[in-house]
């Protein structure tokens, strides 16, 4: 009797264990794979510019720490062209599974590719995880040009039609700011001999070498030509430590003028908005990984050594900033045509 009961009990326990194991396996299969397994293979970070540029350097510098945070290798590929349209279209045509991440200087280039480049997408087709690197624009004259302040430069453009030469990067915030200044001052756009370049390096070389009288361009990237410049204004509401220049509307006060403060470059990471909609858990994992990487002391030290930004503003604020940038550029886009 005892042996029979023991055998029966053993059988029942085994049955329960088998049943429980099957139930757990069934439950595991029912759970979303994204919540537990993502990522299981390398991520592809697509850069909207060529190698060596600011966005490319940011992506490659961050790829190591991000790889450590997510636990899989990260490969960086460059797809430059058409004001980031090539990269944007590539990312939008990839599966919305979180394995393709977009790294770029989203403002102003993505904005301008939509407003002036006839792009088939919108800023809302992307979900911006974080903008970590912001640039303010600097308006500076060649030190031998004779221009010591912004009003004297603008008055020279007004009075000496076609004689003053300026340099900007095509479609940049600095480009739009120059057009805005002329518009607000009532100076015909044709009075300025404005030369547009495809890269900041070319524009900076032009002003440093005296081929043009002034430049409107990213302040941070201009450290290397500081000795050749007379700063006239910083496109900001307040002074910055790096440059001895008045905030732009303070510089314009003698002329009773005021212009909107245009955000310069905004660099960071994004995915498609459809990816966030379909896989919110994966989006959260990517966001957390970037935030954790930027919180690391070693990462911040490396960013600082390479003169790169490394702030965390998060998805909500990043998306707000992108839409605000688009609205400002949309209002004044006609000045760039």
Rg from Cα: 27 Å
Number of strands: 10
The CATH architecture of the largest domain is: 3-Layer(aba) Sandwich
Q: In percent, how much strand structure appears in the residues?
A: 15-25%
Determine and state the CATH class of the largest domain.
Answer: Alpha Beta
Low-confidence stretches: 1-35
- Please estimate the helix content: 40-55%
Number of helical regions = 13
- Please tell me what the overall shape is: elongated
Order of strands, main sheet, comes to: 2-1-3-10-4
CATH fold-level name of the largest domain:
D-Maltodextrin-Binding Protein, domain 2
Q: Count structural domains.
A: 2
| Series of secondary-structure elements, N-terminal to C-terminal | HHEHEHEHEEHEHEHEEHEHHHH
Features:
337 residues; alpha/beta; D-Maltodextrin-Binding Protein, domain 2; 2 domains; 5-stranded mixed sheet; 13 helices; 18% strand; disordered N terminus; signal; BUG; Tripartite tricarboxylate transporter substrate binding protein
